[in-house]
Every structure is written in structure tokens, then in C-alpha cells.
Specification:
- This protein is of the alpha/beta class and 247 residues long.
- It has one domain: 3-Layer(aba) Sandwich (Rossmann fold), CATH 3.40.50.
- Helices cover 36% and strands 17% of the residues.
- It is built from eight helices and nine strands.
- A seven-stranded mixed beta sheet has the order 1-3-2-4-5-8-9, sandwiched between helices. It has a two-stranded antiparallel ribbon with strand order 6-7.
- Helix 1 links the parallel strand 2 and strand 3.
- Helix 1 crosses helix 8.
- The longest helix is centred in the N-terminal third of the chain and has 18 residues.
- The protein is globular, with a radius of gyration of 16 Å.
- It starts with 12 loop residues before the first strand and ends with a helix.
- This is Alpha/beta fold hydrolase.
- One of its GO terms (molecular function) is carboxylic ester hydrolase activity.
- InterPro entries: AB_hydrolase_fold, Esterase_lipase, Hydrolase_4, MAG_DAG_Lipase.
């Protein structure tokens, strides 16, 4: 049970549209705010869009500390089912850990038409150093890695050490099943990223079994690219990708 109220701007979002649906997933310590622009852009094409809030996110980092990776999976599975009830064709996109969850879902749901992971995490050497540790209880924030001036991500000001153990478990089980992914994939990666090493996207490209796959470089954004200089470019690329598969 979450103790704190959901922050303004961190609420889940839903746009009802056509029989083509897109699940839009935010990242670790972040909120739906980072994905809302992309969600709105996809909805403007007439697609049905769901942006779920991951359990323990968008409230207070003490709530996040109590949440598990299984609950984050549950949060995105609920969003997936909401779309599944309304749509015939489903796509998934996600930023950072949202990208990890995109890959996780894709490995479990072969019916997904296409995926668009953005700076997805499957190997996080900086966080690996904290594996198995419980102290200190909280670390510095990892949100708001944004190149554009004056733009902030609605993310936690502290990172619970307990939550790092959870993302490491999620990353591990997701990486193991990358070869199960066979649907078309548009992999977007910032060439300069201070949170998730850009090589993650190269590894994803190499380890998924999709034949229709592409890595697209984001040249003017840091980690939170969906709020950065390349946000319009990302939206256009995702729209074109979906259009090419449902036309």
C-alpha cells in the first residue's frame, strides 16, 4: 500500500482511439511525465494509448523502496491488458527501465506487433556496484539527465538502495530472454547517456532474434531523451515505425 499521494503530472494516462494500441512505459525513479509528450503524439495519430504508473513511482521514494520488480511488471501487465481489451494490434515503447519492461513484455507476448525501446537498460555497471548492499538506505538521484536547459524530469530526489536490488533482478531476467524477441524493433539510443551506457542498445540489437530491427542514434539528448532536444524526432520515428507495420 502506497503511503503518499500521486504527484501532479505523475498520474497514469489513457487515450482512447483506434484498434491499434501503444503501451508507453516510464523509467526507474521517474514518472509518466517523462512519457506524456510521446503518448500525446501517438494519440494524435488516432492510436489508443496507455501510460501506466509503475507501483511505488510518482509519489515518494519511500513508496518506491517498498515496491518490487514483480509489482512493476504487474503495473505494465495491467496496462497491456487494458489495451488488449480495446485493440487488435499492440505496440510497446519505454524509456530506460521502461525500455527494459518493454523487452520483458515482448519476450512474454509474441503477439506484440512491434517494440520501440528508448535507452533501455539491460546492463548497468554503475548500479552493479551496489548489488547485495543495504547501506546507505538512499543514494543520490539519477533522474533528470537532460541536455536541454530548463527541462526537469518529475523524478525522485533520492534512489532507494533496496530498489537498486530490484532493478538489477529485472535487468537480469530480461537479458536472459532477449532471444525470445522476434517482432520488429526500433531501438533508440542517445549517443551520450550518463545513466545507461549506450552500448546497451547495441547489445539489445545483437541479442534479440528479430529480423526487422534498427538502431537509431539520438545525437542531441542525454538519457531522458523523451523530454530532451530529440523528443519530436523520437515521436516522428515511432509514428513512422507503427504506420509502416499497420498500413
Amino acid at each position: 500500500m502506497e503511503k503518499y499521494a500521486v504527484k501532479q503530472g505523475a498520474e497514469p494516462f489513457y487515450f482512447e482511439g483506434s484498434k491499434t494500441g501503444v503501451l508507453v512505459l516510464h523509467g526507474f525513479t521517474g514518472s509518466t511525465q517523462s512519457m506524456r509528450y510521446l503518448g500525446e503524439q501517438l494519440a494524435s495519430e488516432g492510436y489508443t494509448v496507455c501510460g501506466p504508473r509503475l507501483k511505488g513511482h510518482g509519489t515518494h521514494y519511500e513508496d518506491m523502496e517498498q515496491s518490487t520488480y514483480e509489482e512493476w511488471i504487474e503495473s505494465v501487465e495491467e496496462g497491456y491488458q487494458w489495451l488488449n481489451e480495446r485493440c487488435d494490434t499492440l505496440f510497446i515503447t519505454g524509456l530506460s527501465m521502461g525500455g527494459t519492461l518493454t523487452l520483458y513484455l515482448a519476450s512474454k507476448h509474441p503477439e506484440v506487433k512491434g517494440i520501440m525501446p528508448i535507452n533501455a537498460a539491460i546492463d548497468m555497471p554503475d548500479l552493479e556496484q551496489m548489488r547485495g548492499k543495504t547501506e546507505p538506505r538512499f543514494l543520490d538521484a539519477i533522474g533528470s539527465d537532460i541536455k536541454a536547459e530548463g527541462v526537469d524530469e518529475l523524478a525522485y530526489e533520492k534512489t532507494p538502495t533496496k530498489s537498486i536490488q530490484e532493478i538489477l533482478k529485472l535487468v537480469e531476467i530480461t537479458r536472459k530472454d532477449l532471444s525470445n524477441i522476434k517482432m520488429p524493433a526500433l531501438i533508440l539510443k542517445s549517443i551520450e547517456d550518463h545513466v545507461v551506457p549506450p552500448e546497451n542498445s547495441t547489445t539489445i540489437y545483437e541479442e534479440i532474434a528479430s529480423t526487422n530491427k534498427e538502431v537509431v542514434d539520438l545525437n542531441d539528448s542525454y538519457h531522458v531523451a523523451t523530454l530532451d532536444h530529440d523528443k519530436e524526432f523520437i515521436a516522428e520515428k515511432c509514428k513512422a515505425f507503427i504506420k509502416g507495420l499497420v498500413a
